[in-house]
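Design request, tokens follow.
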């Protein structure tokens, strides 16, 4: 008769184990004891705990199916003999996805894809699975939520001719999944989703801390041992944070976030964590009947609906990853009788907005104490950095004064507390992108303009250098067309 798992309490700080809960550990930490399930020792002398950590048994384990796990994998090797993982990547056949990953899936890596329900996560990974199955080998798609028929229905919409080596498994038992994996040895493994998976070695429910840790460690073990990239799907809460235990974020190598507005077709893929590439890269997709379509020129997609004759609308630019993005900043000011005017920002940090409004009042004399201010970055992009400061201030000024900004003029630069316009990186690439989209003038920090002039940089746009926010407003007012209304 098999022995049942025993319950112990382990200190999170020092790892001390006790058969009973202790308010204070021997290391001096208070309330640091966590309940763990300890399985009885296996014939090879190993045991497994609720944390999913293998013991240091005396038995040698060469891994199931002959994989180099266990005793052989535990031997130290010279670092110079270890090959770089960047040289061996598995392409997904989706350029925007490979861009965010840093060039493709690293063999043996563990990637997490998160997003709201219905945003297109399963569609994206199914498209990648079809491409990999055609080019690199068999793919095992494990679904814990949908049946084979549901996945086939989605696949028929995406692809007319499904490859024979794209395998579907509707299973939530981790032991059965490992058995199938070691039998098939696929080139790519997909787990959808990790919150539904469980191990028989633990009594806790799927999605708990112990289950997620054990399942995550098992996926990492087989991924590293067989040099197979593993992609797992996780849900997010209404606030946009990853649902369930945060443990899963620490286990994986890469965390991808898939976002978008339900009433819009645009979808944005970001890397919140990437051990094999940059974390500021983004990928753009458009949802259509045939699945997700890549958006190569994201700036053009953002600017095609821009109303150049509207007050409070200013074009700006940010540099995301390896490419510049041209965005539209919209501002609206409205009189209010409330003692505390409303400040609402979509895509811009609210604290940053309040700082810019304070600079407008102190350095330019624009008093907004009796005005509600609303800010929106069109397209759902949340730009990183501070390069959109200048356009944000000009949009607020335009809306407050009722002025229509000049047509085909782009503005970017950081605003300091003294009202100065500070330089931002990659200005030359932004200027080339602006010229390719038909902008006639670009307003940017004066020091950046001087540096570009000295370097001999040439672009098919007029460069307008401004040193302070007051200079920018004076210059934009001189270029402004007739005001839409007087105040």
């Amino acid at each position: 008769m098999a022995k049942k798992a025993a319950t112990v309490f382990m200190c999170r700080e020092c790892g001390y184990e006790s058969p009973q809960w202790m308010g204070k550990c021997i290391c001096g930490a208070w309330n640091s004891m966590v309940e763990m399930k300890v399985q009885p020792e296996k014939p090879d002398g190993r045991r497994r705990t609720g944390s999913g950590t293998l013991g240091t048994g005396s038995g040698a384990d060469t891994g199931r199916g002959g994989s180099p796990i266990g005793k052989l994998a535990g031997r130290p090797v010279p670092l110079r003999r270890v090959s770089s993982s960047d040289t061996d990547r598995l392409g997904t056949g989706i350029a925007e996805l490979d861009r965010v990953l840093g060039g493709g899936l690293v063999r043996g890596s563990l990637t997490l894809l998160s997003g709201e329900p219905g945003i297109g996560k399963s569609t994206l990974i199914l498209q990648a699975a079809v491409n990999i199955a055609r080019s690199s080998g068999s793919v095992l798609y494990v679904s814990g939520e949908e049946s084979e028929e549901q996945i086939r229905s989605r696949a028929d919409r995406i692809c007319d001719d499904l490859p024979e080596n794209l395998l579907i498994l509707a299973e939530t038992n981790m032991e059965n999944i490992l058995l199938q994996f070691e039998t098939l040895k696929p080139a790519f493994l997909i787990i959808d989703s990790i919150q539904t998976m469980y191990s028989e070695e633990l009594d806790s429910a799927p999605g708990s801390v112990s289950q997620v840790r054990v399942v995550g460690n098992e996926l990492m073990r087989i991924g590293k041992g067989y040099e197979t990239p593993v992609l797992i799907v996780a849900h997010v809460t209404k606030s946009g944070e990853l649902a369930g235990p945060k443990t899963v974020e620490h286990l994986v190598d890469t965390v991808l976030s898939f976002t978008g507005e339900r009433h819009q077709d645009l979808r944005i893929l970001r890397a919140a964590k990437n051990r094999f590439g940059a974390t500021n890269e983004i990928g753009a997709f458009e949802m259509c009947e045939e699945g997700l379509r890549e958006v190569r020129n994201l700036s053009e997609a953002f600017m095609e609906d821009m109303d150049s004759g509207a007050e409070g609308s200013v074009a700006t630019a940010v540099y995301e990853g390896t490419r510049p993005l041209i965005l539209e900043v919209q501002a609206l000011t409205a009189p209010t009788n409330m003692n505390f005017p409303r400040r609402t920002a979509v895509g811009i940090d609210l604290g940053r907005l309040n700082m810019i409004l304070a600079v407008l009042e102190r350095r330019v004399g624009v008093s907004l104490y009796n005005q509600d201010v609303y800010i929106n970055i069109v397209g759902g992009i949340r730009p990183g950095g501070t390069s959109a400061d200048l356009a944000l201030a000009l949009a607020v000024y335009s809306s407050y004064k009722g002025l229509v900004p000049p047509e085909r003029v782009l503005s970017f630069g950081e605003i300091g507390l003294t009202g100065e316009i500070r330089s931002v990186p990659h200005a030359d690439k932004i200027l080339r992108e602006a010229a390719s989209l038909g902008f006639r003038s670009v307003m940017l920090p004066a020091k950046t303009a001087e540096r570009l002039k000295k370097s001999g940089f040439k672009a098919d746009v007029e460069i307008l250098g401004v040193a302070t926010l007051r200079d920018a407003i004076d210059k934009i007012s001189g270029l402004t067309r007739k005001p839409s209304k007087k105040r």
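Comment from the thread starter after seeing the answer: thanks! The chain has three domains: 1-49, 87-296, 301-479.
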